[in-house]
Each structure stands twice: as structure tokens, then as C-alpha cells.
């Protein structure tokens, strides 16, 4: 059930009405809504999801006691076995075949076509379950009071398909206070604004540039340098506006229900270095990687060479999490190398006494431009259909082989520049949101404001009704 579909909007309206009409039954309303959301995608995968959640809940009751390590191991096996089978088994099989030099026959099995449908949100709920198990094992979090509560926490339809990744310490207390949540008009208006923002991004930006991205990457092996840059620029904005649209709609849905979900993006393409980028891109995943991979590996408490290895290892694992392909692994490794290189660079500036340079606005602008383009290069590995396509595009982009501009590439480069300017406007809008919103309400009569909101909503509904809703990119992860 896609957030950008009329079906989901009707579903959300029904949940919203029941949620506030029957405050004592809110947990039941959410539990049933979550089940319906997943069952809509496939009853079999809903049953699988519920069984994994129930298993982890049961195992968590043994955490903290004398068998805590054993229970933690069992819980991790359940979660990772489910994730590895559905997401990585065919990739691992193919890699083994390439290594051994022959094909393993799957005739007579349900997987003869070498494809396994990926359950919706499997990567996101797996990370939530792992975080829960580890936190309870370490005593940072008390086990959930009931399977009912645990199910609502893990499966909340607002976020579990593609994030943000919730932590038990932040979200379980909200569920335990859910009956006391009051209907607040300002909060509901803000929630609707987030949902509207997400829909605008998806319908008016992502849907318009996606065909060009698909066309260019579909013939990646034939692209010249300019066309490769065009394709990469457009994909950079496609994946940002698509993923941030989903995340903002998730935050908006949470606000409608009086629940706080974390923002996942803070205009990341205005970052001047890798560390800043990962504080602003897919924030909840970055925090998860830091807390459950980088720090357990030793974090920054070890020798410098180990820190660099830890950074590269953590980001490579992040790449593997995104998808079962070597291109994703290389993408993660690439960002790990960028992070390690930036740390070395920072230490070099400190030794030479040039740290004040980083505070210079001209240096900041230059650093943002450089790192944005390094990020765009990385997106080639993320999006390319094959390793060969990615290598060809990178060669063309770095050597600018066959430089030639056409009317279409010039137009698309102009659109890319416009999208970057829009990204800057988004940054300013977030920074000055309170001032601008108060000014908007003070300067514009309520009747006109209402007419503007209604017009936007009507146009969006018409587009949603007349077009086929496309899936969000991160639904595939």
C-alpha cells in the first residue's frame, strides 16, 4: 500500500478517525491497522513478519538473566536468518558459483527462477529488532510489556516500510502514554503539512525526473561523459526527494497520531564532508551503524589505523544492507574510504595549524561543491544495473570522454541546477520555518490560505487518481 496512492489516503483517514473517536482502543486500532497494511502487500509475508516479531519478543524475556548471551544469540539468529534468506541467499549463491566456476542447479525447488520476493520493510524491521535485542541485553531498555505492545512498536505502518528506524527507548514510552494523547489542531496541521510536502516532492519532482534516470541508466554502457553526469545528477536528486518524501510523510502521519518520529534528512547535499553528510542523510540508519557496528568495533577509542579500518568496515556493511549486489558493497566501501580520508585530512590540517581555514565561508562553499560531486560519483555504483555499467560511467565522468552537449543534456543540466537551488530553498525554509509560517499567517487572510491549501490538495488528488502510483525507491531495501 503506497503512501502516494488513493487507497492509502483512505486507509489513513479511517485510522485517524478511529484513533480519535475511540481513545481507549488506540493500541488495538494501530495493531489492526499495521496488520492490514502488511497483509495488503501479501498475507504470507505478514504471517512471516508476525512470527519473527513474536519469536523475538519471546526470546527477549530471557535477556538480562543468566542466559542473556544465549538468548541474544538466538534472537540475532532468528532476525539475521530471515534477512539473509530473503535478501542475500541468491546473491551468495551466485557469488559461490562464480568462485567455483559452475552453476548449482535449483531444479525441483520453488527458486528455480533464482528470485525470492523481498518482504516489505524487511531491512528496516530487522535493524529495529537487532537494536531492541542489544539494548535489552545491555540493560539500556526494559523488555516490552506485552506482545501486543511490541507488535505495534515494530510494525507501525507509518514508518516500518522504509524508516525512520525507531528505538525502543524513544518510542515505547510514547505508546505507553497513547491514551492520554489529545487532539491538537496545530499538531495536526503540521502533520498534514509534512504529508503534503512529501506528496509534492514525490508527484511533482520524483515522478518527472524518474523516466530520464531510467532511460539513461538503461543504456549506461553507451553514455558519454556529459550524459553520465546528467544521469548521476538526476539520480542524486531522485533518490533524495523520493526518500525524504517518504520520511516526511512518515513524520507527518506520526504527528497526526500524536507520536514523534525522527526526521531522517536535513538537506544533506549542503554537507562539506562525509561526517556531516552522514549526520544529515538517512540519519536514523547512520546512528544505527554508529551505535551497533562502528562503536562495537572499537569506534574512535583505538589507534588511528584501526579507526580508519572501522570506518571503512562500518560503511561497507551499510552498503551491503542496502542491497545484495557488489555495486552496493562498493558504494559503501567508497563512502568508508571518503570518511577515512577526510579524517586523515582533518588531522593534517590540525598539524599544520590550518584548522581556521575550515571556518572560512569561501572554503565552505568550495568544500560543499567538491563533496557534492564526490557523492554524485558514488551514486553511480548505487544505481547502475551492473558493475560494467558503473565502471564505464565513472570513466566517462572522470575523463569526460566524448564531451558533447545536446539540447536535452543542456536542459537536464539546467533542471539539475534548479533542483540544487530548490535544495537550498528547502534548507532556508527549515531554518526559518517558524518566522516564515508566522509571517504567512499574519500577512495572508485565512480564506486565501485555505484556498491555496485546497487547490494544492485538489491538484495532488487529481494526479494521484489519474496516474499509477510508483513505489518509493527504499521499498526495495
Could you explain the architecture of this structure?
It is built from 18 helices and no strands. By secondary structure, the protein is mostly helical. It folds into two domains: 6-181, no CATH class; 186-466, no CATH class. It is globular and about 65 Å long. The chain starts with 5 loop residues before the first helix and ends in an 11-residue tail after the last helix. The model has no long low-confidence stretch (mean pLDDT 86). Keywords: Acyltransferase, Cell membrane, Membrane, Transferase, Transmembrane, Transmembrane helix.
Key attributes of the depicted protein:
477 residues, globular, 2 domains, mainly alpha, single chain
What is the strand and helix layout of this fold?
Blueprint: H1 6-21, H2 26-41, H3 43-60, H4 68-100, H5 122-137, H6 147-155, H7 168-176, H8 185-218, H9 225-256, H10 274-280, H11 283-294, H12 304-322, H13 326-351, H14 361-383, H15 387-399, H16 407-431, H17 433-443, H18 446-466
Helix pairs in contact: 1-2, 2-3, 2-6, 3-4, 3-5, 3-6, 4-5, 6-7, 8-9, 8-18, 9-14, 9-15, 9-16, 11-12, 12-13, 13-14, 14-15
Amino acid at each position: 500500500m503506497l503512501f502516494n496512492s488513493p487507497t492509502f489516503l483512505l486507509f489513513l483517514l479511517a485510522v485517524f478517525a478511529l484513533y480519535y473517536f475511540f481513545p481507549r482502543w488506540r493500541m488495538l486500532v494501530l495493531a489492526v491497522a499495521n496488520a492490514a497494511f502488511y497483509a495488503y502487500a501479501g498475507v504470507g509475508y505478514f504471517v512471516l513478519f508476525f512470527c519473527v516479531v513474536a519469536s523475538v519478543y519471546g526470546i527477549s524475556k530471557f535477556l538480562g538473566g543468566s542466559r542473556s548471551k544465549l538468548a541474544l544469540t538466538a534472537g540475532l539468529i532468528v532476525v539475521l536468518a530471515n534477512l539473509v534468506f530473503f535478501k542475500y541467499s541468491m546473491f551468495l549463491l551466485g557469488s559461490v558459483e562464480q568462485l567455483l566456476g559452475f552453476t548449482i542447479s535449483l531444479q525441483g525447488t520453488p527458486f528455480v527462477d533464482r528470485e525470492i520476493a523481498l518482504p516489505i520493510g524487511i531491512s528496516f524491521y530487522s535493524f529495529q529488532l537487532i537494536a531492541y535485542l542489544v539494548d535489552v541485553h545491555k540493560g539500556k531498555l526494559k523488555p516490552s510489556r506485552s506482545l501486543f505492545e511490541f507488535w505495534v512498536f515494530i510494525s507501525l505502518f507509518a514508518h516500518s516500510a522504509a524508516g525512520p528506524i525507531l528505538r525502543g527507548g524513544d518510542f515505547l514510552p510514547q505508546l505507553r502514554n497513547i491514551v492520554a494523547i489529545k487532539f491538537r489542531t496545530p499538531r495536526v496541521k503540521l502533520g498534514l503539512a509534512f504529508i503534503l510536502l512529501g506528496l509534492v516532492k514525490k508527484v511533482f519532482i520524483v515522478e518527472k525526473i524518474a523516466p530520464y534516470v531510467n532511460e539513461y541508466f538503461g543504456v549506461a554502457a553507451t553514455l558519454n561523459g556529459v550524459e553520465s553526469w546528467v544521469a548521476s545528477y538526476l539520480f542524486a536528486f531522485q533518490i533524495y526527494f523520493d526518500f525524504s518524501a517518504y520520511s516526511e510523510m512518515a513524520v507527518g502521519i506520526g504527528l497526526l497520531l500524536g507520536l514523534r518520529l525522527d526526521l531522517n534528512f536535513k538537506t544533506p547535499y549542503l554537507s562539506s564532508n562525509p561526517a556531516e553528510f552522514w549526520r544529515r542523510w538517512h540519519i536514523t540508519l547512520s546512528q544505527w551503524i554508529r551505535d551497533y557496528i562502528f562503536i562495537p568495533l572499537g569506534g574512535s577509542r583505538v589507534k588511528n589505523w584501526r579507526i580508519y579500518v572501522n570506518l571503512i568496515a562500518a560503511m561497507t556493511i551499510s552498503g551491503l544492507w542496502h542491497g545484495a549486489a557488489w555495486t552496493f558493497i562498493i558504494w559503501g566501501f567508497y563512502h568508508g574510504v571518503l570518511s577515512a580520508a577526510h579524517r586523515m585530512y582533518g588531522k593534517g590540517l590540525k598539524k599544520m595549524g590550518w584548522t581556521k581555514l575550515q571556518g572560512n565561508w569561501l572554503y565552505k562553499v568550495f568544500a560543499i561543491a567538491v563533496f557534492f560531486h564526490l557523492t554524485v560519483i558514488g551514486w553511480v555504483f548505487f544505481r547502475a544495473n551492473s558493475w560494467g555499467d558503473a565502471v564505464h560511467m565513472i570513466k566517462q565522468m572522470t575523463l569526460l570522454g566524448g564531451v558533447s552537449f545536446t539540447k536535452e543534456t543542456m536542459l537536464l543540466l539546467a533542471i539539475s541546477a534548479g533542483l540544487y537551488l530548490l535544495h537550498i530553498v528547502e534548507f532556508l525554509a527549515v531554518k526559518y520555518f517558524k518566522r516564515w509560517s508566522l509571517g504567512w499567517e499574519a500577512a495572508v487572510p485565512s480564506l486565501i490560505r485555505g484556498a491555496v491549501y485546497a487547490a494544492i490538495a485538489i491538484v495532488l488528488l487529481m494526479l494521484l487518481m489519474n496516474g499509477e502510483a510508483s513505489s518509493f525507491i527504499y521499498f526495495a531495501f
